[in-house]
From TrEMBL:
Name used for this protein in its record: LCP family protein
InterPro entries per UniProt: LytR/CpsA/Psr_C (IPR027381), LytR/CpsA/Psr_CW_biosynth (IPR050922), LytR_CpsA_psr (IPR004474)
Biased composition (Low complexity): 1-25, 34-50
UniProt cross-references to Pfam families, sorted A to Z: LytR_C, LytR_cpsA_psr
Originating organism: Streptomyces acidiscabies
TM ranges: 86-106
Domain (LytR/CpsA/Psr regulator C-terminal) ranges: 439-532
Family: Belongs to the LytR/CpsA/Psr (LCP) family.
Domain of life the protein comes from: Bacteria
PANTHER family: POLYISOPRENYL-TEICHOIC ACID--PEPTIDOGLYCAN TEICHOIC ACID TRANSFERASE TAGU (PTHR33392)
Length: 574
Protein backbone atom coordinates (compact mmCIF):
# COMPACT_ATOMS: atom_id res chain seq x y z
CA UNK A 1 0.00 0.00 0.00
CA UNK A 2 2.74 2.41 0.85
CA UNK A 3 4.33 1.68 -2.47
CA UNK A 4 1.26 2.52 -4.44
CA UNK A 5 0.84 5.68 -2.51
CA UNK A 6 4.38 6.69 -3.11
CA UNK A 7 4.06 6.83 -6.79
CA UNK A 8 0.77 8.57 -6.66
CA UNK A 9 1.84 11.08 -4.13
CA UNK A 10 4.68 12.14 -6.29
CA UNK A 11 2.62 12.67 -9.31
CA UNK A 12 0.10 14.65 -7.44
CA UNK A 13 2.53 17.10 -6.07
CA UNK A 14 4.06 18.15 -9.35
CA UNK A 15 1.96 20.43 -11.41
CA UNK A 16 2.37 24.16 -11.63
CA UNK A 17 4.71 26.23 -13.75
CA UNK A 18 6.58 29.24 -12.69
CA UNK A 19 6.25 32.03 -15.19
CA UNK A 20 5.98 33.41 -18.63
CA UNK A 21 4.67 32.15 -21.88
CA UNK A 22 7.88 31.29 -23.64
CA UNK A 23 10.86 29.07 -23.07
CA UNK A 24 13.12 32.00 -22.31
CA UNK A 25 10.65 34.77 -21.58
CA UNK A 26 7.73 34.79 -19.20
CA UNK A 27 5.16 37.26 -18.03
CA UNK A 28 3.63 35.39 -15.13
CA UNK A 29 4.30 32.49 -12.80
CA UNK A 30 3.31 29.12 -14.15
CA UNK A 31 3.27 25.49 -13.23
CA UNK A 32 6.44 23.67 -14.14
CA UNK A 33 6.29 20.95 -16.66
CA UNK A 34 8.24 18.72 -14.38
CA UNK A 35 5.69 19.15 -11.68
CA UNK A 36 3.25 17.87 -14.15
CA UNK A 37 5.60 15.07 -14.82
CA UNK A 38 5.56 14.17 -11.21
CA UNK A 39 1.87 14.03 -11.33
CA UNK A 40 2.03 11.97 -14.39
CA UNK A 41 4.11 9.35 -12.82
CA UNK A 42 1.70 9.09 -10.03
CA UNK A 43 -1.33 9.41 -12.13
CA UNK A 44 -0.01 6.71 -14.28
CA UNK A 45 -0.98 4.39 -11.58
CA UNK A 46 -4.49 5.49 -11.85
CA UNK A 47 -4.93 4.68 -15.51
CA UNK A 48 -5.06 1.00 -15.02
CA UNK A 49 -8.54 0.96 -13.54
CA UNK A 50 -11.82 -0.11 -15.08
CA UNK A 51 -15.04 1.76 -15.37
CA UNK A 52 -17.84 1.20 -12.92
CA UNK A 53 -20.60 3.13 -11.24
CA UNK A 54 -19.58 5.56 -8.59
CA UNK A 55 -22.23 4.26 -6.26
CA UNK A 56 -21.62 0.65 -7.17
CA UNK A 57 -17.90 1.06 -6.75
CA UNK A 58 -18.38 2.67 -3.39
CA UNK A 59 -20.48 -0.19 -2.21
CA UNK A 60 -18.28 -2.88 -3.64
CA UNK A 61 -14.85 -4.09 -2.71
CA UNK A 62 -12.07 -1.79 -3.96
CA UNK A 63 -10.47 -4.68 -5.73
CA UNK A 64 -13.56 -5.29 -7.80
CA UNK A 65 -13.36 -4.16 -11.38
CA UNK A 66 -15.42 -4.48 -14.50
CA UNK A 67 -17.49 -2.61 -16.97
CA UNK A 68 -19.68 -0.15 -15.14
CA UNK A 69 -23.13 1.11 -15.84
CA UNK A 70 -24.23 4.70 -15.78
CA UNK A 71 -24.05 6.18 -12.26
CA UNK A 72 -27.31 6.82 -10.43
CA UNK A 73 -26.66 10.52 -10.83
CA UNK A 74 -24.43 12.12 -13.45
CA UNK A 75 -20.98 12.98 -12.09
CA UNK A 76 -20.27 16.58 -11.27
CA UNK A 77 -18.84 18.00 -14.46
CA UNK A 78 -16.75 21.07 -13.95
CA UNK A 79 -14.33 22.33 -16.55
CA UNK A 80 -11.84 23.56 -13.97
CA UNK A 81 -9.65 26.31 -15.24
CA UNK A 82 -7.12 26.16 -12.46
CA UNK A 83 -5.60 22.78 -12.68
CA UNK A 84 -2.42 20.94 -12.09
CA UNK A 85 -1.43 17.43 -12.65
CA UNK A 86 -2.41 15.01 -9.90
CA UNK A 87 -0.86 11.71 -9.00
CA UNK A 88 -2.95 8.62 -9.09
CA UNK A 89 -0.60 6.86 -6.75
CA UNK A 90 -1.50 9.13 -3.88
CA UNK A 91 -5.13 8.33 -4.31
CA UNK A 92 -4.43 4.62 -4.24
CA UNK A 93 -2.68 5.01 -0.93
CA UNK A 94 -5.57 7.04 0.34
CA UNK A 95 -8.03 4.41 -0.71
CA UNK A 96 -6.05 1.70 0.94
CA UNK A 97 -5.92 3.71 4.13
CA UNK A 98 -9.60 4.53 4.20
CA UNK A 99 -11.02 1.30 2.85
CA UNK A 100 -12.70 0.60 6.16
CA UNK A 101 -14.24 4.03 6.51
CA UNK A 102 -17.49 2.83 5.06
CA UNK A 103 -19.88 3.43 2.23
CA UNK A 104 -20.78 6.99 3.19
CA UNK A 105 -17.16 8.13 3.23
CA UNK A 106 -16.61 6.64 -0.20
CA UNK A 107 -19.63 8.53 -1.44
CA UNK A 108 -18.28 11.71 0.12
CA UNK A 109 -14.93 11.34 -1.64
CA UNK A 110 -16.62 10.43 -4.91
CA UNK A 111 -18.70 13.60 -4.69
CA UNK A 112 -15.48 15.64 -4.44
CA UNK A 113 -14.22 14.43 -7.81
CA UNK A 114 -14.89 16.61 -10.83
CA UNK A 115 -14.92 15.13 -14.30
CA UNK A 116 -14.89 16.37 -17.88
CA UNK A 117 -14.96 14.97 -21.41
CA UNK A 118 -11.82 13.09 -22.41
CA UNK A 119 -11.40 14.30 -26.01
CA UNK A 120 -12.99 17.38 -27.58
CA UNK A 121 -11.48 16.95 -31.04
CA UNK A 122 -12.97 15.59 -34.25
CA UNK A 123 -12.88 11.84 -34.80
CA UNK A 124 -10.47 12.25 -37.73
CA UNK A 125 -7.83 13.74 -35.43
CA UNK A 126 -7.97 10.94 -32.88
CA UNK A 127 -5.45 8.15 -32.51
CA UNK A 128 -6.51 4.53 -32.84
CA UNK A 129 -7.17 2.66 -29.61
CA UNK A 130 -4.07 0.92 -28.28
CA UNK A 131 -3.98 -2.74 -29.29
CA UNK A 132 -3.58 -5.56 -26.80
CA UNK A 133 -0.50 -7.75 -27.02
CA UNK A 134 -0.61 -11.51 -27.51
CA UNK A 135 -1.00 -11.94 -23.76
CA UNK A 136 -4.15 -9.84 -23.81
CA UNK A 137 -2.50 -6.90 -22.01
CA UNK A 138 -2.96 -3.27 -22.97
CA UNK A 139 -0.71 -0.28 -22.29
CA UNK A 140 -2.11 2.80 -20.53
CA UNK A 141 -1.55 6.44 -21.46
CA UNK A 142 -2.54 9.24 -19.07
CA UNK A 143 -2.08 12.94 -19.77
CA UNK A 144 -1.20 15.07 -16.74
CA UNK A 145 -2.12 18.73 -17.10
CA UNK A 146 -1.29 21.81 -15.08
CA UNK A 147 -2.78 25.27 -15.61
CA UNK A 148 -1.42 28.71 -14.79
CA UNK A 149 -4.92 30.10 -14.17
CA UNK A 150 -5.29 32.04 -10.92
CA UNK A 151 -9.03 32.42 -10.59
CA UNK A 152 -9.31 31.95 -6.84
CA UNK A 153 -7.98 34.07 -4.01
CA UNK A 154 -5.92 31.16 -2.73
CA UNK A 155 -4.26 30.50 -6.08
CA UNK A 156 -3.58 34.23 -6.49
CA UNK A 157 -1.70 34.20 -3.19
CA UNK A 158 0.35 31.25 -4.37
CA UNK A 159 1.77 33.08 -7.36
CA UNK A 160 -0.78 34.76 -9.55
CA UNK A 161 -0.89 38.20 -11.11
CA UNK A 162 -4.15 40.11 -10.71
CA UNK A 163 -4.39 40.71 -14.44
CA UNK A 164 -4.59 36.94 -15.01
CA UNK A 165 -7.74 36.53 -12.92
CA UNK A 166 -10.59 35.13 -14.99
CA UNK A 167 -8.53 34.84 -18.18
CA UNK A 168 -8.40 31.75 -20.40
CA UNK A 169 -6.43 28.97 -18.70
CA UNK A 170 -3.11 27.84 -20.14
CA UNK A 171 -1.94 24.23 -19.93
CA UNK A 172 1.55 25.13 -18.80
CA UNK A 173 2.28 21.62 -17.54
CA UNK A 174 1.76 18.71 -19.90
CA UNK A 175 3.14 15.25 -19.24
CA UNK A 176 2.22 11.99 -20.87
CA UNK A 177 2.45 9.01 -18.54
CA UNK A 178 2.82 5.68 -20.36
CA UNK A 179 2.52 2.40 -18.46
CA UNK A 180 3.63 -0.65 -20.42
CA UNK A 181 1.14 -3.37 -21.22
CA UNK A 182 2.95 -5.86 -18.99
CA UNK A 183 3.34 -3.23 -16.24
CA UNK A 184 7.11 -3.78 -16.22
CA UNK A 185 8.01 -0.14 -16.88
CA UNK A 186 6.70 3.41 -16.97
CA UNK A 187 7.73 6.28 -19.24
CA UNK A 188 6.91 9.97 -18.78
CA UNK A 189 7.23 12.50 -21.60
CA UNK A 190 7.03 16.23 -20.79
CA UNK A 191 6.18 18.76 -23.48
CA UNK A 192 7.39 22.35 -23.01
CA UNK A 193 4.41 24.69 -22.69
CA UNK A 194 5.61 26.97 -25.49
CA UNK A 195 5.88 24.19 -28.08
CA UNK A 196 4.58 25.37 -31.45
CA UNK A 197 2.24 22.87 -33.09
CA UNK A 198 -1.17 22.45 -34.69
CA UNK A 199 -4.17 22.53 -32.35
CA UNK A 200 -7.19 20.67 -33.76
CA UNK A 201 -10.74 21.96 -33.87
CA UNK A 202 -12.38 21.53 -30.46
CA UNK A 203 -15.94 21.98 -29.21
CA UNK A 204 -16.64 23.12 -25.65
CA UNK A 205 -18.89 20.43 -24.10
CA UNK A 206 -20.75 22.97 -21.96
CA UNK A 207 -21.26 25.99 -24.22
CA UNK A 208 -21.05 24.06 -27.54
CA UNK A 209 -18.76 26.79 -28.81
CA UNK A 210 -16.45 25.54 -31.53
CA UNK A 211 -12.82 26.65 -31.64
CA UNK A 212 -11.43 26.31 -35.15
CA UNK A 213 -8.14 24.54 -35.72
CA UNK A 214 -4.88 26.48 -35.50
CA UNK A 215 -2.00 25.41 -37.69
CA UNK A 216 0.71 26.90 -35.48
CA UNK A 217 0.05 27.87 -31.88
CA UNK A 218 1.57 27.29 -28.45
CA UNK A 219 0.43 24.01 -26.97
CA UNK A 220 -0.54 25.59 -23.65
CA UNK A 221 -3.33 27.53 -25.43
CA UNK A 222 -5.21 24.26 -26.00
CA UNK A 223 -6.71 24.26 -22.50
CA UNK A 224 -8.55 27.52 -23.14
CA UNK A 225 -10.31 26.01 -26.16
CA UNK A 226 -13.02 24.12 -24.36
CA UNK A 227 -11.11 22.43 -21.56
CA UNK A 228 -8.63 19.62 -20.93
CA UNK A 229 -10.22 17.49 -23.63
CA UNK A 230 -8.75 19.86 -26.22
CA UNK A 231 -5.29 19.39 -24.75
CA UNK A 232 -5.82 15.63 -25.05
CA UNK A 233 -6.93 16.08 -28.68
CA UNK A 234 -3.81 18.17 -29.38
CA UNK A 235 -1.52 15.46 -28.02
CA UNK A 236 -3.25 12.73 -30.00
CA UNK A 237 -3.03 14.74 -33.22
CA UNK A 238 0.70 15.37 -32.73
CA UNK A 239 1.81 11.99 -31.42
CA UNK A 240 -0.76 9.53 -32.79
CA UNK A 241 -0.78 8.01 -29.29
CA UNK A 242 -4.19 7.07 -27.90
CA UNK A 243 -4.75 8.72 -24.52
CA UNK A 244 -6.90 6.77 -22.06
CA UNK A 245 -7.25 9.33 -19.26
CA UNK A 246 -6.27 12.80 -18.09
CA UNK A 247 -5.74 14.30 -14.62
CA UNK A 248 -5.50 17.94 -13.55
CA UNK A 249 -4.82 19.79 -10.28
CA UNK A 250 -4.41 23.43 -9.20
CA UNK A 251 -1.81 25.37 -7.20
CA UNK A 252 -3.60 25.09 -3.88
CA UNK A 253 -4.19 21.39 -4.47
CA UNK A 254 -0.48 20.82 -5.01
CA UNK A 255 0.34 22.63 -1.77
CA UNK A 256 -2.22 20.72 0.31
CA UNK A 257 -1.14 17.39 -1.13
CA UNK A 258 2.55 18.18 -0.68
CA UNK A 259 1.80 18.92 2.97
CA UNK A 260 -0.11 15.67 3.33
CA UNK A 261 2.65 13.62 1.74
CA UNK A 262 5.39 15.28 3.78
CA UNK A 263 8.88 16.43 2.86
CA UNK A 264 10.57 15.28 -0.35
CA UNK A 265 14.38 15.52 -0.66
CA UNK A 266 15.71 17.77 -3.43
CA UNK A 267 19.22 18.94 -4.23
CA UNK A 268 20.83 22.12 -5.64
CA UNK A 269 24.51 22.42 -6.52
CA UNK A 270 24.72 26.01 -5.24
CA UNK A 271 22.74 28.54 -3.21
CA UNK A 272 19.67 29.57 -5.21
CA UNK A 273 17.12 32.37 -5.00
CA UNK A 274 14.53 32.42 -7.79
CA UNK A 275 13.78 36.13 -7.91
CA UNK A 276 14.46 38.90 -10.43
CA UNK A 277 14.69 42.65 -10.05
CA UNK A 278 11.31 42.94 -11.77
CA UNK A 279 9.63 40.59 -9.33
CA UNK A 280 9.60 37.45 -11.46
CA UNK A 281 10.54 34.05 -10.14
CA UNK A 282 9.05 31.39 -7.90
CA UNK A 283 10.58 32.78 -4.71
CA UNK A 284 12.42 29.53 -3.98
CA UNK A 285 15.42 30.17 -1.73
CA UNK A 286 17.67 27.28 -0.72
CA UNK A 287 21.31 26.92 0.28
CA UNK A 288 23.56 24.48 -1.54
CA UNK A 289 22.90 20.84 -0.76
CA UNK A 290 19.98 18.50 -0.14
CA UNK A 291 16.78 19.72 1.52
CA UNK A 292 13.36 18.33 2.30
CA UNK A 293 10.62 20.49 0.75
CA UNK A 294 6.86 20.36 1.25
CA UNK A 295 3.80 22.59 0.99
CA UNK A 296 4.43 26.00 -0.59
CA UNK A 297 8.16 25.34 -0.83
CA UNK A 298 7.45 22.19 -2.85
CA UNK A 299 5.25 24.27 -5.16
CA UNK A 300 8.06 26.83 -5.51
CA UNK A 301 10.47 24.07 -6.50
CA UNK A 302 8.10 22.74 -9.11
CA UNK A 303 7.49 26.21 -10.54
CA UNK A 304 11.07 27.44 -10.60
CA UNK A 305 12.39 28.49 -13.98
CA UNK A 306 14.55 31.49 -13.11
CA UNK A 307 17.53 30.05 -11.28
CA UNK A 308 17.71 26.54 -12.73
CA UNK A 309 20.00 25.70 -15.65
CA UNK A 310 19.41 28.10 -18.60
CA UNK A 311 16.24 29.67 -17.18
CA UNK A 312 13.97 27.93 -19.68
CA UNK A 313 11.06 25.52 -19.31
CA UNK A 314 13.53 22.73 -20.05
CA UNK A 315 15.38 23.33 -16.79
CA UNK A 316 12.12 23.54 -14.90
CA UNK A 317 11.00 20.24 -16.41
CA UNK A 318 14.19 18.60 -15.19
CA UNK A 319 13.58 19.93 -11.67
CA UNK A 320 10.06 18.55 -11.77
CA UNK A 321 11.31 15.16 -12.89
CA UNK A 322 13.84 15.12 -10.06
CA UNK A 323 11.13 15.96 -7.54
CA UNK A 324 8.84 13.24 -8.85
CA UNK A 325 11.57 10.63 -8.82
CA UNK A 326 12.59 11.60 -5.30
CA UNK A 327 9.00 11.42 -4.11
CA UNK A 328 8.59 7.95 -5.57
CA UNK A 329 11.72 6.75 -3.80
CA UNK A 330 10.74 8.44 -0.55
CA UNK A 331 7.24 7.02 -0.43
CA UNK A 332 8.26 3.55 -1.48
CA UNK A 333 11.15 3.31 0.97
CA UNK A 334 9.32 4.52 4.07
CA UNK A 335 6.01 4.29 5.85
CA UNK A 336 5.23 7.98 5.48
CA UNK A 337 1.60 7.48 4.61
CA UNK A 338 0.60 4.79 7.10
CA UNK A 339 -1.27 7.15 9.42
CA UNK A 340 -5.05 6.90 8.85
CA UNK A 341 -5.44 10.61 9.63
CA UNK A 342 -2.78 11.55 7.08
CA UNK A 343 -4.40 9.34 4.51
CA UNK A 344 -7.81 10.88 5.09
CA UNK A 345 -6.39 14.39 4.79
CA UNK A 346 -4.65 13.40 1.60
CA UNK A 347 -7.82 11.83 0.25
CA UNK A 348 -9.76 15.02 0.92
CA UNK A 349 -7.05 17.19 -0.64
CA UNK A 350 -6.65 14.99 -3.70
CA UNK A 351 -10.30 14.45 -4.53
CA UNK A 352 -11.13 18.12 -3.96
CA UNK A 353 -8.29 19.38 -6.15
CA UNK A 354 -8.39 17.14 -9.19
CA UNK A 355 -10.38 17.11 -12.39
CA UNK A 356 -10.37 13.84 -14.34
CA UNK A 357 -12.05 12.31 -17.36
CA UNK A 358 -15.23 10.28 -16.93
CA UNK A 359 -13.25 7.05 -16.91
CA UNK A 360 -11.67 8.01 -13.57
CA UNK A 361 -14.62 9.70 -11.89
CA UNK A 362 -14.75 7.55 -8.76
CA UNK A 363 -12.48 6.38 -5.99
CA UNK A 364 -12.79 2.74 -7.00
CA UNK A 365 -11.78 3.41 -10.60
CA UNK A 366 -8.72 5.26 -9.38
CA UNK A 367 -7.95 2.51 -6.91
CA UNK A 368 -8.11 -0.14 -9.62
CA UNK A 369 -5.77 1.88 -11.79
CA UNK A 370 -3.40 2.50 -8.92
CA UNK A 371 -3.15 -1.20 -8.26
CA UNK A 372 -1.94 -1.64 -11.82
CA UNK A 373 0.67 1.08 -11.54
CA UNK A 374 2.17 -0.02 -8.28
CA UNK A 375 3.44 -3.10 -10.12
CA UNK A 376 6.07 -0.97 -11.90
CA UNK A 377 9.49 -1.13 -10.15
CA UNK A 378 11.10 2.19 -9.24
CA UNK A 379 14.16 1.47 -11.36
CA UNK A 380 11.94 1.05 -14.45
CA UNK A 381 10.40 4.54 -14.24
CA UNK A 382 11.94 6.94 -16.79
CA UNK A 383 11.28 10.68 -17.07
CA UNK A 384 11.97 12.43 -20.39
CA UNK A 385 11.40 15.75 -22.14
CA UNK A 386 10.19 15.94 -25.74
CA UNK A 387 13.23 16.62 -27.97
CA UNK A 388 12.92 20.11 -29.41
CA UNK A 389 14.69 23.00 -31.07
CA UNK A 390 14.31 26.72 -30.53
CA UNK A 391 12.33 28.84 -32.96
CA UNK A 392 12.91 32.31 -31.61
CA UNK A 393 11.75 32.18 -27.99
CA UNK A 394 9.56 29.14 -28.65
CA UNK A 395 10.34 25.50 -29.41
CA UNK A 396 9.11 22.90 -31.87
CA UNK A 397 9.42 19.09 -31.99
CA UNK A 398 12.40 17.56 -33.80
CA UNK A 399 12.80 14.23 -35.57
CA UNK A 400 14.00 12.82 -32.27
CA UNK A 401 10.59 13.70 -30.86
CA UNK A 402 8.98 11.60 -33.59
CA UNK A 403 11.22 8.72 -32.55
CA UNK A 404 10.33 9.15 -28.88
CA UNK A 405 6.62 9.14 -29.68
CA UNK A 406 7.07 6.01 -31.81
CA UNK A 407 8.72 4.19 -28.93
CA UNK A 408 5.79 5.07 -26.69
CA UNK A 409 3.26 4.06 -29.35
CA UNK A 410 4.99 0.72 -29.78
CA UNK A 411 5.27 0.20 -26.01
CA UNK A 412 9.06 0.11 -26.03
CA UNK A 413 10.68 0.99 -22.70
CA UNK A 414 12.73 4.19 -22.71
CA UNK A 415 15.29 2.78 -20.26
CA UNK A 416 16.61 0.27 -22.80
CA UNK A 417 15.95 -2.68 -20.48
CA UNK A 418 13.16 -4.31 -22.43
CA UNK A 419 13.28 -8.05 -22.80
CA UNK A 420 11.66 -9.64 -25.81
CA UNK A 421 8.00 -8.73 -25.50
CA UNK A 422 4.82 -10.26 -26.74
CA UNK A 423 4.11 -8.58 -30.04
CA UNK A 424 0.78 -6.83 -30.56
CA UNK A 425 -1.82 -9.15 -31.98
CA UNK A 426 -3.21 -8.20 -35.37
CA UNK A 427 -6.10 -5.83 -35.08
CA UNK A 428 -9.14 -7.67 -36.47
CA UNK A 429 -10.93 -5.98 -39.34
CA UNK A 430 -9.48 -2.55 -38.64
CA UNK A 431 -7.26 -2.15 -41.69
CA UNK A 432 -7.57 1.45 -42.96
CA UNK A 433 -9.92 1.74 -45.94
CA UNK A 434 -8.67 3.39 -49.13
CA UNK A 435 -10.67 5.36 -51.68
CA UNK A 436 -10.59 4.32 -55.37
CA UNK A 437 -7.21 5.24 -56.88
CA UNK A 438 -8.72 7.89 -59.14
CA UNK A 439 -10.26 9.67 -56.16
CA UNK A 440 -7.08 9.88 -54.08
CA UNK A 441 -5.55 13.35 -54.22
CA UNK A 442 -1.76 13.18 -53.91
CA UNK A 443 0.73 16.03 -53.72
CA UNK A 444 4.24 15.09 -54.79
CA UNK A 445 7.22 16.97 -53.33
CA UNK A 446 10.86 16.85 -54.38
CA UNK A 447 12.90 16.00 -51.29
CA UNK A 448 16.01 14.72 -53.07
CA UNK A 449 18.34 17.51 -51.96
CA UNK A 450 21.26 16.45 -49.75
CA UNK A 451 24.19 18.27 -48.13
CA UNK A 452 26.43 17.16 -50.99
CA UNK A 453 23.98 17.26 -53.89
CA UNK A 454 21.32 19.69 -54.98
CA UNK A 455 17.77 18.62 -55.77
CA UNK A 456 17.31 16.23 -58.67
CA UNK A 457 15.44 18.47 -61.11
CA UNK A 458 11.96 17.47 -62.14
CA UNK A 459 11.59 14.55 -59.72
CA UNK A 460 8.21 15.66 -58.36
CA UNK A 461 6.82 16.00 -61.89
CA UNK A 462 8.27 12.66 -63.00
CA UNK A 463 6.90 10.70 -60.04
CA UNK A 464 3.54 12.45 -60.26
CA UNK A 465 3.44 11.20 -63.84
CA UNK A 466 4.17 7.66 -62.65
CA UNK A 467 1.21 7.86 -60.27
CA UNK A 468 -1.06 9.27 -62.97
CA UNK A 469 -0.14 6.40 -65.27
CA UNK A 470 -1.07 3.96 -62.51
CA UNK A 471 -4.56 5.46 -62.18
CA UNK A 472 -3.99 8.18 -59.58
CA UNK A 473 -5.37 10.91 -61.81
CA UNK A 474 -5.42 13.46 -58.99
CA UNK A 475 -1.67 13.26 -58.38
CA UNK A 476 0.04 16.63 -58.86
CA UNK A 477 3.59 17.87 -58.46
CA UNK A 478 4.27 20.80 -56.16
CA UNK A 479 7.62 22.22 -57.32
CA UNK A 480 7.52 24.95 -54.68
CA UNK A 481 7.66 22.42 -51.85
CA UNK A 482 11.28 21.29 -52.19
CA UNK A 483 12.47 19.60 -49.02
CA UNK A 484 15.29 17.34 -47.93
CA UNK A 485 14.54 13.75 -46.96
CA UNK A 486 17.03 10.90 -46.88
CA UNK A 487 14.32 8.37 -47.69
CA UNK A 488 11.05 8.55 -49.60
CA UNK A 489 7.98 9.07 -47.40
CA UNK A 490 4.22 9.05 -47.80
CA UNK A 491 2.61 11.38 -45.26
CA UNK A 492 -1.00 11.96 -44.24
CA UNK A 493 -2.55 14.44 -41.77
CA UNK A 494 -5.36 12.44 -40.14
CA UNK A 495 -6.56 8.89 -39.56
CA UNK A 496 -9.25 9.08 -42.26
CA UNK A 497 -6.53 9.41 -44.93
CA UNK A 498 -4.22 6.66 -43.66
CA UNK A 499 -5.75 4.07 -45.98
CA UNK A 500 -5.18 6.33 -48.99
CA UNK A 501 -1.55 6.90 -47.99
CA UNK A 502 -0.95 3.17 -47.59
CA UNK A 503 -2.50 2.55 -51.00
CA UNK A 504 -0.15 5.05 -52.67
CA UNK A 505 2.85 3.44 -50.96
CA UNK A 506 1.79 -0.06 -51.97
CA UNK A 507 1.38 0.83 -55.64
CA UNK A 508 4.85 2.40 -55.76
CA UNK A 509 6.55 -0.37 -53.76
CA UNK A 510 7.29 1.91 -50.83
CA UNK A 511 7.35 0.02 -47.48
CA UNK A 512 4.50 0.62 -45.05
CA UNK A 513 7.06 1.76 -42.47
CA UNK A 514 7.62 4.85 -44.66
CA UNK A 515 3.95 5.87 -44.30
CA UNK A 516 3.73 8.46 -41.55
CA UNK A 517 1.14 10.67 -39.95
CA UNK A 518 2.28 14.32 -40.03
CA UNK A 519 0.75 17.60 -38.97
CA UNK A 520 2.91 19.37 -41.57
CA UNK A 521 0.73 18.25 -44.50
CA UNK A 522 -2.90 18.90 -45.38
CA UNK A 523 -3.49 15.78 -47.49
CA UNK A 524 -1.76 12.65 -48.75
CA UNK A 525 1.75 13.79 -49.66
CA UNK A 526 4.51 11.82 -51.37
CA UNK A 527 7.97 13.18 -50.56
CA UNK A 528 10.45 11.77 -53.07
CA UNK A 529 13.64 11.32 -51.04
CA UNK A 530 17.34 11.17 -51.81
CA UNK A 531 17.00 7.39 -52.17
CA UNK A 532 14.96 7.88 -55.38
CA UNK A 533 16.86 10.50 -57.35
CA UNK A 534 16.25 8.88 -60.73
CA UNK A 535 14.10 6.37 -62.58
CA UNK A 536 10.43 5.55 -62.37
CA UNK A 537 10.66 2.49 -60.12
CA UNK A 538 11.32 2.83 -56.42
CA UNK A 539 13.94 0.46 -55.07
CA UNK A 540 13.38 0.00 -51.37
CA UNK A 541 16.60 0.04 -49.33
CA UNK A 542 17.62 -3.09 -47.47
CA UNK A 543 15.90 -3.30 -44.14
CA UNK A 544 18.10 -2.39 -41.19
CA UNK A 545 17.33 -3.08 -37.54
CA UNK A 546 15.29 -0.23 -36.11
CA UNK A 547 16.94 1.82 -33.38
CA UNK A 548 14.73 1.40 -30.33
CA UNK A 549 16.80 3.38 -27.86
CA UNK A 550 15.54 6.65 -26.44
CA UNK A 551 17.28 9.63 -28.10
CA UNK A 552 19.88 11.43 -25.98
CA UNK A 553 18.00 14.67 -26.60
CA UNK A 554 15.10 13.33 -24.49
CA UNK A 555 17.30 13.86 -21.39
CA UNK A 556 16.08 10.68 -19.71
CA UNK A 557 16.27 10.45 -15.91
CA UNK A 558 15.68 7.18 -14.06
CA UNK A 559 13.67 7.24 -10.84
CA UNK A 560 16.28 5.14 -9.02
CA UNK A 561 19.07 7.67 -9.64
CA UNK A 562 19.81 9.22 -6.24
CA UNK A 563 22.64 11.41 -7.54
CA UNK A 564 20.33 13.93 -9.23
CA UNK A 565 21.03 17.56 -8.29
CA UNK A 566 19.79 20.71 -10.03
CA UNK A 567 22.39 23.01 -11.56
CA UNK A 568 21.92 26.60 -10.38
CA UNK A 569 22.37 29.55 -12.73
CA UNK A 570 25.20 31.58 -11.10
CA UNK A 571 23.26 34.82 -11.64
CA UNK A 572 20.59 33.53 -9.24
CA UNK A 573 23.00 32.34 -6.57
CA UNK A 574 23.60 34.15 -3.28
Amino acid sequence: MAQSGAVKGEAAVGGASEEGASAKETSSEEVPAEEAASGEAASGEVPGGKASDKAEEAASSPATSGEGTAPPAPPRRTRRRRILRWSAGVLAVVILGTAGAGYLYYQHLNANIRSDDLNLGDAKDRAATTQVNSAGQRALNILLIGSDARDTEENQKLGGAKDTFGGPPLADVQMLLHVSADRSNMSVVSMPRDTLLGIPKCTDPDTRKTYEASTRAMTNESLGRGGPGCTVATWEKLTDIHIDHFMMIDFSGVVSMADAVGGVPVCVDANVYSHTSTGKGSGLKLPKGTHSVKGQQALQWLRTRYGFEDGSDLGRAKAQHMYMNSMVRELRSSAKLTSPNKLRRLAEAATSAITVDDGLDSITKMYDLANELQKVPTDRITMTTMPNRYVGARVEPTQDADKLFRLVREDIALDGKDEKKATPSPSPAVAPVASPDGQIAVQVHNGTRTDELGSSRGRATTVAGVLTAKGFTQAVADPSAATSEATTLVQYPSADLEGNALRVAKVLGIPASAVQKSTDVSGVTLVVGADWRSGTTYKAPKAVPEDNTAPDTAQAINASDTSQCMHVDPSFSW
